Amino acid sequence: MTSATDGRSLLWPSVRRLLLALTCAGAGLVIAGVFSGADPPSSPAYVTGVSALLALGLYGSASGIPRAAVTDLRRVVLAVTVGVLFKALLIGGVMFAFSPHPASLVLGVAVAQIDPLSVAALLTHSQMSARAKGLLLAWASFDDPITALLTIYLSVFAFGAAAGAPHLETELGPYLLGIAANLLLAAAGWLLWQLIKRLPVGERTRLAIAVAVLIVLGAVAVWQFLMLGMALLGLFYRLDLGAVLDRLVTVTFYLASVALGLLLIDGVLVTAGLVLGLAAFAAQIVVGGLLVAPRGIGVTDRVYLALGQQNGVTAILLALALAPVYPPAIQIVAPAILVINILHILTNAVWDRRTAVPAWLGGIRSRQTTGLAARVVRVLGAGHISEHVGRRLEDALRNERAVLGAATRDDRTAATAQNRHTG
């Protein structure tokens, strides 16, 4: 599907982002091959670097939540609470069935979020309604910090303290103290923000002071690994930096991709990554299409929400953060991210051409006349099922077009009447 404005694919931003990430990961792999023998996850510099990137990513995600995106507040809260937990349980359950290990649930949470930067880029030319766009953007923006924090704190109980990750504690006391420290950082940030807004200085000076204070707060967060505090800061400590913060988060994504490549020198676990990626995408279909999608929403928006799973900077950074305590995390999450984003591109490309989908589904049985595929279709009854689904989908799309057409005519009639009244 192409946009009316420039003729390029509506999915080109997602394709371009994936290709650049693969290029960065490849560069990291080459660097790792040249400087073989190093063990980055065991070094304090690695933990500090990943913590800094994660803090920036979480602050960027939280501060990027537009106020207008939470108009459907009940659905947003449902998505980032019940939806996130249900997705994590679905993904973790599939992974646990594949490989019974405490890491299964942690990995399920690590890829359960939707990347907000990818969503923001996609929605520029999306065919979704304004309501569905706002819901998906708010969902992606809120669940990013939530899944990151759940992953970090679940790791406490799944793995305990490990070499190279001194911030993970096995006792509940230090865990609760950590929560208190995060809240204290957020409270200090809020007080400083209120003070900065009341300073009798010019706007440029005020902005410079606010940036300096934020850098100090971020340094404290990285030093003590107060990621919850950074996410909370992003909700109210908002700086007028234009597109600078978005660019910083984008740079963080590509730097994280390079770091991911550095740790792929020992290869990937293809099967586990494939299972994790398929489970994450299927979980989004269930949660997005059935649980979170509002009642009465059209089939077009419902399917777009169901196919909304994308992973980016947070999933990569969480894999990097898990590497010191669970080294296979990188080897599993990396191919899973690739599977998820490829599925997103392919399925959305098909749904962009949804008017042709019913006919394609209806013709499956007639096209499979010989060979193994035909026998499978006959045995499973897939031909009859696809015909039925195709008819139902065609009826739903036809009804949706009729409703939209009637609404458009009503709007025009109301506008005409208003013009006559004012004239």
From TrEMBL:
Keywords: Membrane, Transmembrane, Transmembrane helix. The keyword Metal-binding does not apply. The keyword Lipid biosynthesis does not apply. The chain crosses the membrane at residues 18-38, 44-65, 77-98, 135-163, 175-195, 207-239, 259-292, 304-326, 332-351. This is Cation/H+ exchanger domain-containing protein.
